[in-house]
């Protein structure tokens, strides 16, 4: 069905969410209709933030908000759905639109398989009824279920639409770009060269895919890298855990702006520990590029100032390869926690592949390599 038709049927004037590739058509429709407008459309840092924002909208207006997300975000909404929205607490109604990655019987990436299998059950456990929208679903079917949903919403309950791949379309063309000149893949190549044989923990999405392909192109093994294919926002904490327990080894984290924003509290923990053998590199293109390119707020956020306020003893931002190489070498030469923000363009190769090793193989190889380090 068309994204604009779904929006008309739901009939809400406030959307907040974290972009998802399954919902790219809806996200593009919202960007084409509202852009980023705090009155009507906010892309939040994580899905729990979305629920709280939507709750505030309902408290202020009495109207029904919509929260959109990938099903991987269900974990982030469990607490506010159970302890804020539930009709045994405040009874705050809202509509969830959830991209269903890892749907049983549909081939998908490893990180989506288990999440996909429990997606409906988690909603059921939270008391949230769901309706599945597929390519064959008619507008009339969605209208009928929404009419049923309204009775539940009026009682302070929450409802959900689960969206299968390709079920929603949008004919409008939205282009996402910025003025930065460095490509992420080339940035990662420079990091790989600078890091040598040091272990790297990389964030979810295209960054890990590019890191894998760079190792392949250089004829290197993959034991140096932990590819955080899921768990968005947690790669820096994984790297910190490694760095603390391998104090004689420099550990690098290749992070993204969307990932940093999703769980920014981790920066406070990193800074307070100030682990001297860790380098935290944040590649900032101001976009959720892996799922379609929709913007984050990172372009307007001073990540260096945040890092310094969190206790990082060294924090800089770079926008060209000369400055990047200089800062990578400085980070290698000191025994202090370092933070490097790298301004990055939006875009990736059309033929970018995916890791050919499984997550379990990745973990085994990485742990085996860490066993050889101090």
Secondary structure elements and their pairing?
Blueprint: H1 3-10, E1 15-17, H2 24-33, E2 41-43, H3 47-61, E3 66-70, H4 74-85, E4 95-99, H5 110-125, E5 130-133, H6 139-153, E6 159-163, H7 184-195, E7 200-202, H8 206-217, E8 225-227, H9 235-245, E9 251-256, H10 257-262, H11 265-273, E10 278-284, E11 287-288, E12 294-295, H12 303-310, E13 314-318, H13 321-333, E14 338-343, H14 359-370
Parallel strand pairs: 1-2, 1-3, 3-4, 4-6, 5-6, 7-8, 7-9, 9-10, 10-14, 13-14
Antiparallel strand pairs: 11-12
Helix pairs in contact: 1-6, 3-4, 7-8, 7-13, 11-12
What does this 3D model show about the protein?
The protein is α/β, with parallel strands linked by helices and 374 residues long. Helices cover 43% and strands 16% of the residues. It has 14 helices and 14 strands. It has helices at residues 3-10, 24-33, 47-61, 74-85, 110-125, 139-153, 184-195, 206-217, 235-245, 257-262, 265-273, 303-310, 321-333, 359-370, and strands at residues 15-17, 41-43, 66-70, 95-99, 130-133, 159-163, 200-202, 225-227, 251-256, 278-284, 287-288, 294-295, 314-318, 338-343. The strands form 3 sheets. Strands 2-1-3-4-6-5 form a 6-stranded parallel β-sheet, sandwiched between helices. Helix 3 runs parallel beside helix 4, helix 7 packs across helix 8 (206-217) and helix 11 packs across helix 12. The model has no long low-confidence stretch (mean pLDDT 97).
Quick summary:
The chain has 374 residues and is an alpha/beta fold.
Estimated share of beta-strand residues: 15-25%
Q: Can you summarize the main beta sheet? A: 6 strands, parallel
Helix content: 40-55%
Strand order within the widest beta sheet = 2-1-3-4-6-5
What's the helix-strand series? HEHEHEHEHEHEHEHEHEHHEEEHEHEH
Determine the N-to-C terminus distance.
56 Å
Going by helix content, strand content and strand pairing, the class is: alpha/beta
- Tally the helices: what do you get? 14
Count of extended strands = 14
Q: What's the alpha carbon Rg, rounded to whole Å?
A: 21 Å
Task: Provide the residue-averaged pLDDT.
Answer: 97
């Amino acid at each position: 069905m068309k994204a604009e038709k779904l929006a008309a049927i739901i009939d809400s004037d406030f959307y907040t969410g974290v972009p998802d590739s399954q919902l790219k058509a809806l996200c593009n429709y919202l960007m084409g209709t509202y852009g980023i407008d705090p009155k009507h459309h906010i892309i939040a840092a994580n899905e729990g933030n979305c629920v709280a924002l939507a709750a505030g909208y309902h408290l202020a207006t009495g109207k029904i908000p919509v929260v959109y997300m990938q099903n991987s975000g269900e974990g982030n909404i469990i607490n506010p759905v159970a302890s804020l929205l539930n009709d045994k607490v405040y009874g705050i109604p809202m509509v969830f639109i959830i991209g269903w990655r890892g749907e049983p019987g549909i081939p998908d990436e490893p990180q989506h398989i288990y999440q996909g299998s429990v997606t409906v059950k988690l909603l059921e456990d939270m008391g949230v009824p769901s309706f599945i929208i597929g390519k064959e679903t008619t507008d009339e079917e969605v209208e009928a279920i929404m009419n049923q949903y309204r009775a539940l919403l009026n009682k302070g309950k929450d409802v959900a639409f689960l969206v299968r791949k390709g079920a929603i379309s949008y004919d409008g063309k939205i282009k996402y770009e910025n003025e930065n000149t460095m490509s992420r893949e080339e940035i990662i190549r420079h990091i790989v060269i600078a890091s040598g044989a040091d272990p790297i923990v990389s964030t979810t999405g295209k960054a890990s895919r590019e890191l894998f392909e760079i190792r392949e192109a250089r004829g290197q093994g993959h034991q140096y890298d932990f590819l955080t294919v899921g768990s968005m926002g947690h790669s820096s904490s994984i790297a910190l855990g490694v760095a603390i327990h391998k104090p004689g080894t420099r550990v690098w984290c290749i992070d993204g702006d969307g990932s940093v924003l999703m769980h920014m509290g981790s920066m406070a923990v990193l800074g307070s520990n100030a682990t001297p053998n860790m380098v935290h590199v944040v590649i900032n293109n101001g976009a959720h590029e892996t799922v379609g390119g929709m913007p984050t707020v990172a372009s307007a956020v001073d990540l260096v100032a945040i890092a310094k306020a969190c206790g990082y003893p060294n924090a800089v931002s770079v926008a060209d390869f000369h400055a990047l190489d200089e800062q990578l070498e400085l980070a290698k030469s000191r025994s202090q926690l370092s933070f490097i923000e790298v301004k990055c363009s939006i875009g990736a190769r059309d033929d970018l592949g995916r890791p050919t090793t499984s997550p379990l193989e990745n973990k085994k190889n990485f742990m085996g390599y860490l066993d050889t380090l101090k």
